[in-house]
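Backbone shape codes:
===
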Amino acid sequence: MAFPPEFLEELRHRLSLANVVSRRVKLQRRGREFVGLCPFHKEKTPSFAVVEDKHFFHCFGCGAHGDVISFTMQSGNLSFPEAIESLAREAGLEVPKATREERERAERQATLRGAIEAAAEHFETQLHSAAGRDALAYLTRRGLDRDTIRRFRLGFAPDRRDGIRQALGQRFPEPLLLEAGLVRRREEGSESYDYFRGRVIFPIGDRGGRVIAFGGRILGEGEPKYLNSPETPLFEKGRVLYGWAQARAAAGGKSPVIVAEGYMDVIALHRAGFVGAVAPLGTALTERQIEELWRLDAEPILCFDGDAAGLRAAARAVGRALPLLKPGRSLRFATLPQGEDPDTLVLRHGVAAMREILDRAQPLVEFLWLLESNVQPLDTPERRAALERRLQERVGGIADRTVREHYDTFLRERIFQHFGKAAPGRARSWRPRRGVPGSRPASAPPAYEPAPQAPSTLRRRQEEVLLAVLLNHPDLLDAVAEELAELEFEFHDLDKLSRALLHLHAARPDLDAGALQLHLSQGEFAAIVNSLLVPQVLNHASFARREADPEVVRAGWHSAKAQFLMRRQKPTAGRAESGGEMTQEWWERLKALHEQREDAQKTDGGVSG
């Protein structure tokens, strides 16, 4: 008898798995889990875990895994209908009666599963035959060993039009092979041919790990590079994640749930120990797939390339996820170096490099701010208002009121940090700049005018301005990299950031301001990068703002650097290292510094500090 999926889900959620298991196993709470001796094999040390909030059990000793239904079947030696009836009585649910149509659909699906499973076995056999020699060599070159190939049941579809019909035609009629997506016809009445030809085959499983579809990668040149099974009564692409069953078996452990792009990424991550890796099937992440992810982990990590396409994919995922957010359920975002994916990163740089990127994953709200604040320069009140409007619209789409209110508070505070916009109900006064408004020549750099502060705060602000300019104008690094390398910052965190800027610019000179800030914000520099771009730093050094004219930026940076050098030399200028006498060398250095200062004052109307 077939039972509606909605009824089975209600049954799983209505009953406490821990309560059901505890009738046969003595359980002890350990954090979020319960542990005990496995009832399915003999053991002296507990390796059997029940993860109550995710509704599954798993034995790390014998591999037994399942939900409340499968536990009742295995522990009580019951059939599936018997277990359902027993649990339904306990839950107070009425067992639905199967209609004739439901029985026929269940029988057809069972037959379809049989055909697809037979096809999976055929593809596996072909991979390890003479016909699959090149495909097996390709997988070996990609770093896969025989054990991994067999564990993921990888296969090969020879470049033949009738391979599946020849292999399965006697057991399964052609209409069934068509319905299963294994063969196709160009038009009604024409001869059918194999759907997958000349491709490495990746079986796609359902929640229970049963094969329901396939993905195929072409060998050599050709389009499409990857091809998925068409949708069938068993396979709906937008609801399935590649590797979900394997990730579920590992859920509740130390490995995070990671969403990668493709099949090989998932397999490479599993081999590297990241056994929570899954992938959508060549399309943008759907709402149903996000819900499936939350069955595994409250905050799965979406791992995207750091290029423009990767950021577009991340933006689509943000848009899909925001309306679905609930307390405790969100997403995190990790960005890979450009040109790398998880597969190549692990092969070239090792597991530690991948773990470092995952450890730097950003919360969804931080990633949302980065995406929206980098849409365009924020150089006018209208553009800032547009940013605020976009954020309001995004936050307004969050269905859960509590989450929506916290997003609203967080983003309002972030706007205030960057633009000095007063919080609701609080007045904000604006002070005109020194001198007559509008009297400064358009070509001159706005003066760096630090407000009166304690000496240590002022010294730090001078160093912050130098770095803020480069964060907003990385093109300037082409001209000033050597000068920056010679500067010794007084404050350790700023000195460390300057070295990171130089290193990143040497490796990726093509990064614009948004991409540069994104890369730095995903590492140890997230807090300091944000602190350098707030109004307290930029209000008195407007040449550091992203919208400033390039010539103004260049002149302003050199002016700020001259002040930095003057300040660093003041304690020793004019003194010989040996004992305090003025030497010719020190005299020449002092004159040069004075000349730099006078030039800066002529350029920007006077620089204080």
Summary: The first strand starts at residue 28 and ends at 30. Residues 422-454, 571-584, 603-609 have pLDDT under 50 and may be disordered. The chain is about 50% helix and 10% strand.
